[in-house]
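Section 4.2 – Deliverable D4.2 (structural model, holo form)

The reporting period included a commitment to supply a predicted holo structure for the target in complex with adenosine-5'-triphosphate. Inputs used:
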Amino acid sequence: MGWDRISKSGSARRRPRMPSYEAARRQFSWAEARAALDGLPEGRGLNIAHEAVDRHAKGPAGGRAALRWLGKDGTRRELSYAALAGLSDRFANLLRDLGIGKGDTVFSLLGRVPALYVAVLGALKNRSVFCPLFSAFGPEPIQSRMAIGAAKVLVTTPQLYARKVRALRADLPQLEQVLLVGGAEPEPGCQSFERRLEVASEDFVIPPTDPEDAALLHFTSGTTGRPKGALHVHEAAVVHAASARFALDLGPEDVYWCTADPGWVTGTSYGIVAPLVVGATLVVDEAEFEPERWYRILQDEKVRVWYTAPTAIRMLMKLGPDLPRRFDLSALRLAASVGEPLNPEAVVWGLKVLGQPFHDTWWQTETGGIMLANFAATDIKPGSMGRPLPGIEAAILRHREDGGVEVIGEAGREGELALKAGWPSMFRGYLNEEARYRKCFADGWYLSGDLARRDSDGYFWFLGRADDMIKSAGHLIGPFEVESALMEHPAVAEAGVIGKPDPVAMETVKAFVALKPGFRPDDALRREILGLARERLGPAVAPREIDFLDDLPKTRSGKIMRRLLKARELGLTEGDTSTLESSS
Ligand code: ATP
Ligand code: MG
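Output (structure tokens):
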């Protein structure tokens, strides 16, 4: 492809907030990053909501837009930092009036509506633990998550309540309060969110908050199995602030759009907390993905920093370059991606068609914030996840027979991607699963469960999740490598690759491919794609078989579920499908 590196020298339209990666790494300390935050007045600790809104609301930024909300029906509403501070104060008082306090769990089941943002920040002020659920979840995933999280309060809408929660109420004995957003006369057992908010006081003093106090509960995407509830603390704000500047190059004057739903960790950490902590203006779109709408938002809102995901990027690519060329995307200064491997094709497509390459970033629900990134000031290597954030030590580990681990110093060798434990946004536990939590650590390292390699420039390259790796005739094959090669064929929109048991080779590589519009899934095309894969990967790594599918099974957060492709191929049970896109 000839795009091994996208050079940044001389290309920046504005000096990035981190002009030198090397210098930032050398100078960085978590103590200083912590000191750069405001802290609660009179040394009363650290509270995410204070950093995100109150701090700005009281100063000259009070009148600046914190939230720019775009309704499905074309409504456009802005909330200033001062207004958001006032509303979240009211919600904190509302909770307190209801007897909900420190450590109690508040859940939401809402679309991307302003009430969600008010509720998250208000709950954090009250030192309650907030857990946002994705509104398209069906009753079972809602019930199991609320039971694990011991939900005391649920904020939802009358429609979602009637469809998904009412019948579960008997199975949720700890659920004390249900607040309904946008309903005139709430039904028995529920209260009106708006009415309670209206009568609550607008003055709330955040009580002393220990940085180690629990703040957010996030369930993992369920890509590899049953979702886990990862618990995060207020101190995570230190990473949110630092990573927003370093990895997203985000600051106060930026209009910023994170397309992830707050039901996933990205949509909260980088869809609410991080941008507000640095004082940016957050664009929130209530509607679902729609290519033309998305390009229009980028254009009309003059989005400067855009954080999205590979699935969305691939869907935009599928429709070709003509549509985006009808829009003026010149305000865009940084585009970033997270959640899944980002194929090199996609990075380069961004540069050619949108005028900005996609900067891949890597992190997990467990890490609470961005850990690896391609930075604004540094060269991008398409297909690489980039380098560790200043303050983060990342390594490739080998597991020893005695159960310990050791760092593989040599560049280019594959092993488990691990992080030196102890960064501020590291999860503090999986709820009710202490043993599973402990298994994530060895010899002072947090083990990610992803396999990767590091090159001699210190860039990390994703190979696959440990569970998805394919062992074939003595080779260890990462599905991402094969999928990326398949994506180079002009007909291929998406690819998912699995290992299929084989008596001789142990496993053979099988690919599932979805085509772009206008291509016919026939034998000739299959042979052509196989030929290209063989040329790129060699016969030992290239797929033996290709099946065409209309769509690949994905989680609601947009990740290809290879374990389902495999279970279906082998006729096995499908396991936990609570986060599968089509299961509602
Ligand atoms: P579960 O843990 O329930 O199986 P999940 O791991 O998909 O689900 P998340 O925490 O949402 O849940 O996702 C983190 C994972 O997503 C990472 O471990 C990695 O496998 C994948 N991922 C995230 N960013 C990237 C990236 N830039 N490149 C490759 N993979 C990525
Ligand atoms: Mg995971």
